[in-house]
Amino acid sequence: MTRPILQVALDLLELPRALAIADEAVQGGADWIEAGTPLIKSEGMEAVRALRDRFPTHPIVADMKIADTGTIEVEMAAKAGASIVCILGDADDVVIREAVRAARLYGIRLMADLINVVDPVGRSAELAGLGVTIINAHVGIDQQMIGRQSIDLLRQIRETTTVQIAVAGGLDAVTAAETVRHGADIVIVGGGIIRSGDVTGAATRVRAAIDNPDLAPKKKKSLDDEIREILMTVSAPNITDAMHRKGSMVGLFSLCGDVKMVGKAVTVQTIAGDWAKPVEAIDHAEAGDVLVINNDSCTHVAPWGELATRSALNRGITGVVIDGAVRDVDDIRKLRFPLFAKATQPNAGEPKGLGEINAEILCGGQYVNPGDWIVGDESGVVVIPAERAYEVARRALEVKKTEERIRAEIERGATLSSISELLKWEKK
């Protein structure tokens, strides 16, 4: 088997950062360097020229995503120093033919991107017949967020495609190895490398995984397990960023300080310190759930205390959110239990039994339904609608990766303003 090619996708906006990250990726074993579509849109052909100057012996990929004027776009990328140019697989055949002719004229290769192609198997055969030399089984970022995977696209086309196959779309060391096991010739990794605080280390791990794919982990997780695992690694601010500043509860604080809570909501509506339904809800919950209690922001009487907390721990409940007050604070803090409330109050209510369990409630200004995912840390509590849980978790992870890279650059002496090129990107 030929050694798989590792292509690093520089999907960035700032050319100086892209060049620095490319240096680190090459040290980690990257073979091909891609001027990603965002970089080309931001910096134009200067990005391709700069990469060619910096890496004279490495193939440079220009991810142009050509949809029209195949000749002129291939020509400009080739003259700037590209070795491979990317065209959309669903472009008209006339565009494909013109791009192929231009690529042959300038001695470069053409990669067709199958993103959004309705019939990838049939179209791959057509593209190969038209003269395309690389087919890219690519699932776009927004598609990845809802669970679509490039490995599924690869499986569809591998048996019927004779040209080289590249695979792209949210890959890391584990999934990159899986693509090689299924016949990928070129493995394209973007965020899994370029957003790492240690780009060289990340590239080295991917390189090792695709060179020895049978040694890479193959463990499968349920969707809920994957969602929980991701949400445990990201912060509440990461999640609100991923949701465009939505989902955050207002006025709650972490009673036990630096603790983390992730789980599906069991909702409780109660009134003025009535603690019957909150305590009954403990027995409705499963291990890993979070109780979300609306006490109508009542802070002069508490529907929750130490004994309820100990009962919740016995059930494996991972946290409690109360739009209201809590008591027995000293004892609860000793338990280090994730409990979020609006106030502390020694007064206890009475078990009258008013309210209901597992109905839609309003808590901290956010509507919460049973089964919604709840994440809490010292920054606050965020609600993720159940139907968007996987998507939001994946987007939050991308936010975290981006911050990790920026943090690493700040630790090396840069400033947030200079990294982000704020003056250049301020709204005009």
Automatic annotation (TrEMBL):
<dbReference type="InterPro" id="IPR041710">
    <property type="entry name" value="HPS/KGPDC"/>
</dbReference>
<dbReference type="InterPro" id="IPR036704">
    <property type="entry name" value="RraA/RraA-like_sf"/>
</dbReference>
<keyword id="KW-0119">Carbohydrate metabolism</keyword>
<dbReference type="GO" id="GO:0004590">
    <property type="term" value="F:orotidine-5'-phosphate decarboxylase activity"/>
</dbReference>
<keyword id="KW-0808">Transferase</keyword>
<dbReference type="Pfam" id="PF00215">
    <property type="entry name" value="OMPdecase"/>
</dbReference>
<dbReference type="GO" id="GO:0008168">
    <property type="term" value="F:methyltransferase activity"/>
</dbReference>
<dbReference type="InterPro" id="IPR017120">
    <property type="entry name" value="Bifunct_HPS/DMK_prd"/>
</dbReference>
<feature type="domain" description="Orotidine 5'-phosphate decarboxylase">
    <location>
        <begin position="5"/>
        <end position="206"/>
    </location>
</feature>
<dbReference type="Pfam" id="PF03737">
    <property type="entry name" value="RraA-like"/>
</dbReference>
<dbReference type="InterPro" id="IPR011060">
    <property type="entry name" value="RibuloseP-bd_barrel"/>
</dbReference>
<dbReference type="GO" id="GO:0019854">
    <property type="term" value="P:L-ascorbic acid catabolic process"/>
</dbReference>
<dbReference type="InterPro" id="IPR013785">
    <property type="entry name" value="Aldolase_TIM"/>
</dbReference>
<protein>
    <submittedName>
        <fullName>Dimethylmenaquinone methyltransferase</fullName>
    </submittedName>
</protein>
<keyword id="KW-0489">Methyltransferase</keyword>
<dbReference type="GO" id="GO:0033982">
    <property type="term" value="F:3-dehydro-L-gulonate-6-phosphate decarboxylase activity"/>
</dbReference>
<dbReference type="InterPro" id="IPR001754">
    <property type="entry name" value="OMPdeCOase_dom"/>
</dbReference>
<dbReference type="GO" id="GO:0006207">
    <property type="term" value="P:'de novo' pyrimidine nucleobase biosynthetic process"/>
</dbReference>
<dbReference type="GO" id="GO:0032259">
    <property type="term" value="P:methylation"/>
</dbReference>
<dbReference type="InterPro" id="IPR005493">
    <property type="entry name" value="RraA/RraA-like"/>
</dbReference>
<keyword id="KW-0456">Lyase</keyword>
